[in-house]
Amino acid sequence: MMRTHMDQELTASKIMDLVKKSFPDLTIERITINNRGWDNLVAIVNESVVFRFPKTKEAENAMKREIRLISMLKDFPVPVPEYRYFPKAGSHFAGYPMIPGVPLNEASTIGRGMWKDIVAAINYMRNFQKDSARRAGIPIYDAASWFKMQGDILALFKESLSEITRKGFFDELQSDLNVSLSGMKEDCFSLIHGDMYRGNVLISRRHDRLNGIIDWGDASYGDYAFDIAAVTMDFAPEYRKELVRQLSPEDDFTSLKRISFYRTVEPLYLADNLIRKGHAAEAMTIIKEVYKICGKTEH
């Protein structure tokens, strides 16, 4: 059984009842449940409306921040969720018209249209005002707090993954962190999506444009290189280099060092989640992929 942070069982029939009672004018012909997400259960109604049900109080708060932030993204160059469905007080979910598309990683290369949209989206976020980010209620980082947060994440991963990683692996990552993220300047920081990766970046079936960017619950005022690392994760190094050159040419070398570090660490989020759920073999598969990434240098 799936539960909300209110400890209510969420079955397909329960979700259908919640939606029907909250939105009686919405005729439900079909409902599809996706419980693969870490923070939210997703219910898609009639292949046209997406409802998100936070699994924890923390996830609920993140969704509230997301809704507030999205309302401030005026003229964002790529479609984002437009939340329209808000239930009565006491129910902890919300919905928006579904944005069609396929995950970014279904494309083998980043074509001209996709490239234009990615550059426009990140450039918009680079110019988003810090005061606006603060009003949205998202986390605000500077060089010191960002460095500490990344170190805390490494410590968390070391705790869960040290038994299935090679000796000295996390010492190497800590050294990489110390080198890559030292000396960060104020202009390294801007609004970031925080998980601009695969299924959160939807592209057209022809792979010629971005249809939308969804799931803004991890957004913060952080290192813009973090989003570049995520959105180019499945693509050749030249895309990362060119994005940095276009978005922040004065910061190209240090940005590429940070991107390399974030690319190494990113798969560890999944490995950590798997090992904590008892899936050691699957976590080990992820670790082997990380070793391959570590063997590639881009700077």
Task: Summarize the structure in words.
The protein is α+β, with helices and mostly antiparallel strands and 299 residues long. It folds into 2 domains: 2-97, Phosphorylase Kinase, domain 1, CATH 3.30.200.20; 102-294, Aminoglycoside phosphotransferase (APH), C-terminal lobe (Aminoglycoside 3'-phosphotransferase, Chain: A, domain 2, Alpha-Beta Complex). Helix content is 46%, strand content 14%. It contains 10 helices and 11 strands. The strands form 4 sheets. The protein has a 4-stranded antiparallel beta sheet. It has a 3-stranded antiparallel beta sheet with strand order 7-9-10, covered by helices on one side. A hairpin with a 3-residue loop joins strand 4 and strand 5 (49-54). Helix 8 (237-247) packs across helix 9. Residues 1-7 have low confidence and may be disordered.
